[in-house]
Amino acid sequence: MVTIVVVGGTGYTGGNIAREAAGRGHTVVSVSRSEPAEPVAGVRYELGQVDEVAPRVVPDADVVVAALSPRGDMAGRLVAAYQQLAELSAEAGARYVQVGGFSSLRPAPGAPRVVEGEIPEEYRAEALEGEDTRAMLVEKAPHDLDWLFVSPAGAYGAFAPGERRGEYRVGGEVALFAEDGSTSISGADFALAVVDEIERPSHHRAHIGIAY
């Protein structure tokens, strides 16, 4: 069993990952600005701003999962927050898993990333900031940091929670699509994939995508 710090552990993605990890017996510490609506048994909740709480909890972590969203008062602050988490993780010798967005994937081999194309205006700023966090890892992550950038499928989020099927596919930076052209993953199965990767590391300093 390992100690996993989930930054954004009361949000949609972080909450699912915290629940999955705690259910498997891992020590889970959630970092968030607010109390969870439904606390998960076995999860320790640390409240406060990430830049204040992380220096206290990351040094004891084996794995740090960054699952914040560039919304609200975090908009425009995600790159700096994740840079700090990456540096703290490297100092602690912890693996660093950063959750990004579908827009950072490529729709086909050699194609520009989705974020480089036409993004609806209401999602554009968030997609661009998410891509900036990926670029930060590639260009500025400490050389000894074992990092992983994980993108969910296109249809993913609280708006389309789906159900746990106990299955998923793992791809590289090229998006995975079903035979009918759809791209989706439930919150529970995305968390399943992330915690499976934590328990059995098989991707290092890489960008992967998770979908059905």
Low-confidence stretches: none
Task: Please give the number of β-strands.
Answer: 8
Distance between the terminal alpha carbons, to the nearest Å? 27 Å
Strand order of the largest sheet: 3-2-1-4-5-6-8-7
Helices and strands: which structural class?
A: alpha/beta
**Alpha plus pi helix count:** 5
pLDDT averaged residue by residue: 96
Oligomerization category of the chains in this entry: single chain
Largest sheet: 8 strands, mixed
Q: Approximately what portion of the residues adopt beta-strand conformation?
A: 15-25%
Query: What number of structural domains do the residues give?
Result: 1
**In CATH terms, what is the architecture?**
3-Layer(aba) Sandwich
Radius of gyration: 16 Å
Could you characterize the architecture of this molecule?
The protein contains 5 helices and 8 strands, in the order E-H-E-E-H-E-H-E-H-E-E-H-E. Strand 4, helix 3 and strand 5 (95-99) form a beta-alpha-beta unit. An 8-stranded mixed sheet has the order 3-2-1-4-5-6-8-7, with helices on both faces. It has 212 residues and is an alpha/beta fold. The chain has one domain: 3-Layer(aba) Sandwich (Rossmann fold). The model has no long low-confidence stretch (mean pLDDT 96).
Quick overview:
The protein is an alpha/beta fold and 212 residues long.
Give a topology summary.
Blueprint (H helix, E strand, L loop, with lengths): L2 E5 L4 H12 L3 E6 L10 E5 L2 H8 L5 E4 L11 H15 L2 E5 L21 H20 L6 E6 L16 E3 L15 H13 L6 E6 L1
Parallel strand pairs: 1-2, 1-4, 2-3, 4-5, 5-6, 6-8
Antiparallel strand pairs: 7-8
